[in-house]
């Protein structure tokens, strides 16, 4: 949730999250560069609202890029000055806001790519972990340094980091609070693709979304729903979730179009229904 060297800030601007649309791609930017895009309660609320609104834009929406402004950080954690004054009950509410924002990202039925260029620490890493994929530049670093402040991850780090890198590695990273660079992040399976710089990163993320967009949007959404729900569940529970998703696919026009196109040896024309 936090990082020791995140900038401390005063009151937020009116809006700290910007959304741009470019065809079927939405670019969501956390725009607090002076604060290294630190996550205050209001920023988390904005993020949740943005992703809830984007959910209403499907099927025209085919993917989302989540980025941080300024070039130094994706998100450098929670706002330390803000959390320093919280009572335990208030901290609970902040954690719930973080989890609601992450849940809104996971519930979006299109892929979300965290485009990391710089720090993704504490809450920044937790936010990235809620995305479907993490792409990063060579200048990026990652970590859960909450224990250095006498805290633990509060926005999903103890839940999602083990799923991404395995339980043993997640324990080591969380207990030590150490920061890892791009080489280790790729080796650990945390980062799906690496790029030399920000321009290449954004171009690569757009290319990936374009490659996904040729497929059935309903099938991609169903696959995401099952992956999010089934990960970490016992095999029997996860199996039933997959079977339910498989059954739901047979109710869609996209399934009928995809099968027909295959049998007729032509390209499918998916309508997203």
TrEMBL record:
Leader sequence segment: none
Single GO MF annotation: enoyl-CoA hydratase activity
Keyword Lyase recorded: yes
Organism of derivation: Agromyces ramosus
Protein name: enoyl-CoA hydratase
Root EC class: lyase
Family statement: Belongs to the enoyl-CoA hydratase/isomerase family.
Keywords associated with the record: Lyase
Enzyme Commission number, as recorded: 4.2.1.17
Pfam families: ECH_1 (PF00378)
Alphabetical list of PROSITE patterns matching this protein: ENOYL_COA_HYDRATASE
InterPro entries attached to this UniProt entry: ClpP/crotonase-like_dom_sf, Enoyl-CoA_hyd/isom_CS, Enoyl-CoA_hydra/iso, Enoyl-CoA_hydra_C
Gene3D superfamilies: 2-enoyl-CoA Hydratase, Chain A, domain 1, Lyase 2-enoyl-coa Hydratase, Chain A, domain 2
Highest classification ranks of the organism: Bacteria, Bacillati, Actinomycetota, Actinomycetes, Micrococcales
